[in-house]
């Protein structure tokens, strides 16, 4: 596909929006799992939709042992992530967000119009919900499927080269933040990182794209087991990545 066609398609989607997309392209051709995803604002696909409230964790606190210990998982989910969800609820009430009309994804896409509290907690809630869904037990581990493997080879040279770039993004993020794999508007895989609880959906973010994978590199995510050894945590974390989920996210872009 040439550049002109991509631009035309983006312009079409920008102009017609969600209703136009549904009417013009018939969403019924999408596979069942794609219903989890939807178009958003002026981006035809702006990431996996995440509800405003904290969802049940899809596995036990000890499911990711020995990579992520049970106590870290429990505190991370019930204290840190729960607090982001609660503070997001407070911020949306205080700032008059109509949650029936504004998805969390579209709110993040316009985050520059809201308070720092909304940015920190909207991002914090989104990032953690996205993160929990990206992992599975190391006993049940899998490998990248052929479609995304081809993309890794095309955009990074090899899967190993992608992993090195991603790990470096996490290691080199000073202080607290996230490492990301995103797909850009021109369908290229890119690695980067964001500070604090920012993410690539935010209009304020330098790194922009549809998130396919994100890694929490805040100390609270690893300190009990790895202390100051963030690189060890990142190296071990590859054993709990659920590549089926990452592939679904890529397919939906
Ligand atoms: Mn965290």
Would you kindly provide a written description of the structure presented here, covering whatever features stand out?
- Strand 1 (177-183) and strand 2 (189-195) form a beta hairpin.
- The longest helix is centred in the N-terminal third of the chain and has 25 residues, at 70-94.
- This protein folds into two domains: 3-39, no CATH class; 67-253, minor pseudopilin epsh fold, CATH 3.55.40.
- The protein has a three-stranded antiparallel beta sheet.
- Helix content is 47%, strand content 8%.
- The protein is mainly alpha-helical and 253 residues long.
- Bound molecules: manganese (III) ion.
- Manganese (III) ion binds at residues 76, 80, 128, 216, 218, 220-221.
- Residues 76, 80, 128, 216, 218, 220-221 line the site of manganese (III) ion.
**Ligand inventory:** manganese (III) ion
- The N- and C-terminal alpha carbons lie at a distance of 16 Å
Number of strands: 3
The fourth-level CATH homologous superfamily of the largest domain is Iron/manganese superoxide dismutase, C-terminal domain
Radius of gyration: 18 Å
The dominant shape is: globular
Number of domains: 2
Q: Any guess at the CATH architecture of the largest domain?
A: 3-Layer(bab) Sandwich
Q: What is the top-level CATH class of the largest domain?
A: Alpha Beta
The quaternary organization reads as: single chain
Low-confidence stretches: 1-44
Order of helices and strands: HHHHHHEEEHHH
The largest sheet is: 3 strands, antiparallel
Helix-residue proportion: 40-55%
